[in-house]
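$ ./design --mode recover --in tokens.txt
reading tokens...
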């Protein structure tokens, strides 16, 4: 039996018509809301206990777009890339409904590059190389064709860059979510707080929530962060799931126990893409809808870690997503008998 709060939403807004193939589904998006995603499109070199790749496509906007494209389109991308970014990767995303009018291409420049090595527990990692390259000159411009977006995702970038995007929007979006990290709390806390005052939802992990709030208790931390501006807060806890906060209400979503985790890179961005992509699909930002969206985001993130980079996201079918969501629902399902 599916828990009532979730089953009710999925009954009203089924993820997919099971009789349709994924390709057919992708042709029936007109009713859904367009989504603006700002973030990095990059190259990664990764080493985990399960293997190593020297150069693979990555970046927060890339992962988010692949995840969100299962639920809504168009996805209006804002980023910057060098002339080395593969045309084939852009074509694949275009075929999924991603537009690139807001992506600056520097023909003689190099795309952002990051190299990291994960420890055996897969929760900690060492950054080996970080090359900003064209990202160092990123000054996003929001095209006129992007002004109709009701849903906005601000990926993990400098707070001043995130604020620049918000300042360029002529109409207040229905929902603005943002991601950030400890680094910006260390060097740009004042700017970060200004952005927080203008967004609806913040996504951080538990250590970032503690640093931002100065509180060890996650519940106290959530209250302090919400007082900074965001009505909604998601605190991600890695292999222990995620918590959604709204006013005095809390929803706890489990994490999927997986036999193999090959690469956690991009899992958070994939979560965010699935989360906001689903909300844009149903055009409903109630707390009940967000609970369902957290499950969707968790399901998408669980796929992401199964292979290096966004490889697994490119292979997904509607049936696989439906099945994984149902697995998540079962994880949290129980009955109390009198």
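writing sequence...
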């Amino acid at each position: 039996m599916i828990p009532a709060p979730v089953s009710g939403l999925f009954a009203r807004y089924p993820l997919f018509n099971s009789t349709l193939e994924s390709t057919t589904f992708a042709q029936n998006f007109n009713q859904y809301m367009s989504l603006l995603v700002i973030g990095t499109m990059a190259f990664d070199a990764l080493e985990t206990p399960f293997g190593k790749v020297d150069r693979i496509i990555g970046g927060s906007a890339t992962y988010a777009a692949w995840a969100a494209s299962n639920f809504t389109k168009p996805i209006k991308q804002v980023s910057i890339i060098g002339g080395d970014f593969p045309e084939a990767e852009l074509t694949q995303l275009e075929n999924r409904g991603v537009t690139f009018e807001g992506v600056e291409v520097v023909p003689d420049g190099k795309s952002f590059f990051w190299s990291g090595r994960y420890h055996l527990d897969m929760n900690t990692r060492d950054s080996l190389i970080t090359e900003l390259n064209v990202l160092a000159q990123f000054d996003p411009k929001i095209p006129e064709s992007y002004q109709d977006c009701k849903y906005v995702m601000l990926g993990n970038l400098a707070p001043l860059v995130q604020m620049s995007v918000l300042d360029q929007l002529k109409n207040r979006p229905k929902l603005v979510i943002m991601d950030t990290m400890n680094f910006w709390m260390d060097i740009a806390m004042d700017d970060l707080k200004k952005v927080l005052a203008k967004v609806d939802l913040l996504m951080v992990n538990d250590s970032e929530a503690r640093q931002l709030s100065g509180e060890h208790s996650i519940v106290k931390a959530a209250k302090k962060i919400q007082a900074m501006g965001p009505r909604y807060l998601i605190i991600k806890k890695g292999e222990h799931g995620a918590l959604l906060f709204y006013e005095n209400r809390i929803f706890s979503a489990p994490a999927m126990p997986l036999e193999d985790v090959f690469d956690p890179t991009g899992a958070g961005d994939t979560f965010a893409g699935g989360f906001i992509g689903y909300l844009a699909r149903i055009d409903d930002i109630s707390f009940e809808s967000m609970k369902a969206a957290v499950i969707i985001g968790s399901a998408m993130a669980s796929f992401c870690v199964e292979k290096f980079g966004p490889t697994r996201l490119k292979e997904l079918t509607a049936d696989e997503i439906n099945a994984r969501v149902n697995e998540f629902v079962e994880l949290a399902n129980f009955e109390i008998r009198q």
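exit 0
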